[in-house]
Amino acid sequence: MPAKKDKSEYIIQAVSHALDLLEQFHDDVDELGVTELSKRLKLHKNNVFRLLATLESRGYIEQNKATENYRLGLKSLELGQTFIKQMGLLRQAKITLEQLVESCNETAYVAIFKENHVVYLDVVETDLTVRVVSRVGSRLPAYCTAAGKVHLAFMTDEEIDASLPTELPGYTPTTITSRGDLKEELKKVAELGYATDYEELDPGVRCIAAPIRDYTRRIVGAISLSGPSMRFTDERMRDELIPLVVDASENLSTRLGYRA
Q: Strands, E, within the chain: which ranges?
């Protein structure tokens, strides 16, 4: 059996050089020229220029037209802010998830919207034998999940269209596969402040989700409950579970600085 390769053997040199270049902008270093970067990186000026051109085309580097030097672009800031927000979201969400599960003994998730999909970041599971399989790390279609609908519901029509696939595949008999019907559903979600999934992705599984907002009032995630339909009856969802999820989302949003 061949020996397993060390990860260092898979490093792409050009990507490594690009990251080295970005890392030169630290502390009080806000601008650097091609010559200085060439000296620091020990690379030919032509190589440095190509790296800069690539990073500039993606918004991670920008050129100061007055000095002709380069500095970090807005995409670098956005990437850092995304990391900070997600880590802050996870830290704050854990307590809320635990309290939510303690209240109803059903599985609770925190999820974000990424690349037109829902991604589950964390979970606190029920201790009941019959439960939903953990979806942490999974990328699921937004249009047929409660957490996805929460994100879509507060987008413009243009943003919704851009976020949906050309066709909406039917995963179960109750999946909404018409764009018109889905948009009507999303209007209701925006009015009610929460979304439901009545076995639209997985047969026998129901979900409830509500938005998580931060201090900028933007939706940064969703908190949700998932469980088998036999326990998620219409009456229990209406009287117990939906109010719990909405309260949990409001409490978590408040901890992230949101003010209604």
A: 61-63, 70-72, 107-114, 117-124, 139-141, 195-198, 205-213, 219-228
φ/ψ (deg, to 5) at 23: -75, -10
Q: Do the two domains 7-72 and 79-255 of this chain adopt the same fold?
A: no
pLDDT mean over 227-256: 94
The full set of domain ranges for the chain reads 7-72, 79-255
Looking at domain 79-255, its CATH architecture is 2-Layer Sandwich (3.30)
The fold for domain 7-72 equals Arc Repressor Mutant, subunit A (1.10.10)
- pTM exceeding 0.70: no
DSSP state of 25: S
pLDDT for 136 equals 78
Condensed to tens digits (0 to 9), the pLDDT of residues 56-87 reads: 999 999 999 999 999 998 888 778 767 656 66
Helix (H, G, I), strand (E, B) or coil at 207: strand
